Amino acid sequence: MDLNRPALPLQNRAARNRKALAATAIATALLLSACGGGAAPQGAEQAAAADPASGANASGAVNICGVKDASGIYKGTAEAFTKANGKVTAKYTEIGATTDEARTQIVQRLEGKSTECDLFVTDVIWTSEFASQGWLLDQTKLVEANKDRLIPSTVETTKYQDKYWGSPFFTNAGLIYYQKDKVAKPESWQQLYAEAAKAPGNGYVYQGKQYEGLTVNFLEMLYSAGGEVLNEQGDVTVDSKETRDVLNFMSDGLKNGSADRAVLTYNEDPARLAYESGDFGYQRNWPHVYRLLNATPLASSFGVAPLPAWEGGKASGVLGGWNLAISAHSTNQAGAVAFIDFATTPDWQKHVAMDYSQAPVNEAAYSDPAVLQKMPFATELLASVKGAKPRPISPVYPQISQAIYKNVYAVLSGTASTEEAVQKMAEEITTAKASF
Amino acid sequence: MAIKTLLPGRSPSSATARPVSGRDRAERKLAFRMTAPSLVIMALVAAVPIGYAIWLSLNQYSVRTAGLSRFVGLENYINALASHEWWAAFGQTFLFAGISVSLELILGTAMALLLNLAFKGRAVLRTVVLLPYAIITVVSAITWQTMFQPNMGLVTNVLSTLGLPGGDVVWLGEHGYAMAVIVMADVWKTTPFAALIILAGLQVISAETYEAAELDGASKWQTFVNITLPLLRPAIVLAAIFRTMDALRVFDLPFVLTRGANGTESMSMLAYTQLRENRLVGEGSALSILTFLTVMVVSVIYVRFAGGNIRDVAKEEQ
């Protein structure tokens, strides 16, 4: 069959009109088998949709798959849901020790149309890639129904081509940890860098190794400076004054001692360990570091602040976090919907913060007294989360991110000039976007 | 010869009655039948995946639309060979392989000579030196990363305490230094392997040769250069082939230590990024095949030129 032909518009329209979820699923299955072996292009536009009402009558078992459950949040949520629901039993299956490994495992299952997993816990940056492949159930209606209890910036991370392909489960945003006895609370990046350069023990540590974390660190500054990588229409707009300013600012910071050159080898853990040595003034890291710092001699002297603004601008950041995506091959989509409904309730979102130290996707949770007691920096965290924006939304995000972190690294390590790096970055992102 | 008499339905008389060519054919048939199972297994585990990878490398697979692909012939290869990234990785991989394999052979020979001496506790030492080789590469990479951590790593600390150069260097963050750490980690881990192969070579050199040399009044150094080294050559070449093939496929050390930054991206890392991270199956497969061909060509060159001894030995045995 001709693979370039848009897939069967007539049958598809008929399928869309059908309300019952089961019927849609069967129609999709038929459509696929009609194309012989399932080699048909089943892109984002032809995907089946999740019915928000189906959760109420759900029963049976739901299997949730994702990365190793380090904080216990996935298994804990599955257990609590099973207990609360009574009809549906949920279980969590770990399919990878690291984020990268989990992605590989999920992609393999989705490519192979495996029915093993009903729900996947997906990193926010995977959404467009998975959705464009037709691997996920369209959750637009479900998200619309739950929208008033979810923080808007977290919902945006599940969006691809004007539809929602997941529901936010918990979120994540960068924070600045600082030594109250040595340095001032960061108000702007400029002030932070200036303060950090004042004395040898005031330095700033962040994630500057050549990897995804560097993309995040760079974008946090770029967004707060008012820059962007892609505009609303998806055009490449990274070749800008803001990009040059931020790159110069970061590389100057390495030269004048604001940041130690060692950050070029740091990802999250080495940055934290360096800061714990007491030789630094500022650290950019994720919220989980709070608990770890509290167990060190620095416990009484460190403070937490949201990411600062670019001088004269508005503070911004980059959203991390995890979404719940329903597999297009799930055999219990109603059960999956019921699980999502439970996981995103304001009540359970409080537990997300209190029991597992993760950032809730429900705004009210941040001002809950019980949450504030366990997570005293909840107000700062909420400010970071609300100001944060998603990373560039594109099915070729991994390539875009490589173009960013490789070229930023080249400037920081001194092997490329800002001008060369900006041009190369824009070129590589344009090439990536043109991927077949 | 013995096999022939075991052939079914074939008495010695009928064998002599037949023309020689028929006997040859039957013998070939038998040989084929006996090797067939191994051939089938080889085909399944080696030829089929390689063939499939070659097929993948001749196509492009859409990262935007599931299941969409198009045949592009050699385009993926042409693009790879025209790219700066491939040649950079190519050069860096050879630089790594050249330095680390040379060091491993020199140190491996020294280690083998030491282990070949008769001394108390030799058996224990032989086991102990193998330890680095038994450690998973990723684990040893993480250990090395920690040792070279700026400010708090063991090596950087010792260097700066002793006032030696390198104490204030961000080893994994600088060109040259980063490669040096990767080479050190590889040499530390695989020298025992080279030593083991060379030790096996040492032990087949007969004691009489050495006795003869001693009678002729040869010095230790003369004995080493004129007897040990030439006789050891097949073993060294063998170790060199194994180590070079491995070194040219290096992946885990740069992946953990630098993620390919500072001039340490290897050919395999490039292929991995395209295949796994970017899901560019065609482009990634082409890079894998190019890596495979590079390693194969190098191995053939080794056997051709450096491995003269191996072939001579093989001929003598025939």
What is the structure about, briefly put?
Chain A is α/β, with parallel strands linked by helices.
Fourth-tier CATH superfamily name of the largest domain in chain A: Periplasmic binding protein-like II
Number of separate helices of chain A: 18
Compute the CA-based radius of gyration of chain A.
23 Å
The CATH superfamily of the largest domain in chain B appears as MetI-like
Number of strands of chain A: 12
- Identify the biggest protein-protein contact and residues per side: A-B, 39 and 33 residues
Please count the helical segments of chain B. Answer: 16
CATH class of the largest domain in chain A: Alpha Beta
Q: Which parts of chain B are unreliable, with pLDDT below 50 for 5 consecutive residues or more?
A: 1-16
Largest sheet of chain B: 2 strands, antiparallel
> What level of helicity do the residues of chain A show?
40-55%
CATH fold-type name of the largest domain in chain B: MetI-like fold
Shape of chain A: globular
CATH architecture descriptor of the largest domain in chain B: Orthogonal Bundle
The oligomeric state is: heterodimer
| C-alpha end-to-end distance of chain A | 19 Å
Residue stretches of chain A low in confidence (pLDDT < 50, at least 5 long) are 1-44
CATH architecture of the largest domain in chain A: 3-Layer(aba) Sandwich
Can you put this structure into words, describing what you see?
The complex is a heterodimer of chains A (436) and B (318). Chain A has 2 domains: 43-171 and 320-389, D-Maltodextrin-Binding Protein, domain 2, CATH 3.40.190.10; 173-318 and 393-433, D-Maltodextrin-Binding Protein, domain 2, CATH 3.40.190. Helix content of chain A is 44%, strand content 14%. Chain A has 18 helices and 12 strands. In chain A, strand 4 and strand 5 form a beta hairpin. In chain A, 53% of the residues are buried. By secondary structure, chain B is mostly helical. Chain B folds into 2 domains: 2-43, no CATH class; 88-317, MetI-like fold (Orthogonal Bundle). Chain B has helices spanning 2-5, 12-17, 20-57, 75-82, 84-116, 122-129, 131-134, 137-147, 154-161, 177-203, 207-215, 220-248, 252-257, 267-277, 281-306, 308-317, and strands at 59-61, 69-71. Chain B is flat, with a radius of gyration of 26 Å. Chain B starts with a helix and ends with a helix. The model of chain B is unreliable at 1-16 (pLDDT under 50).
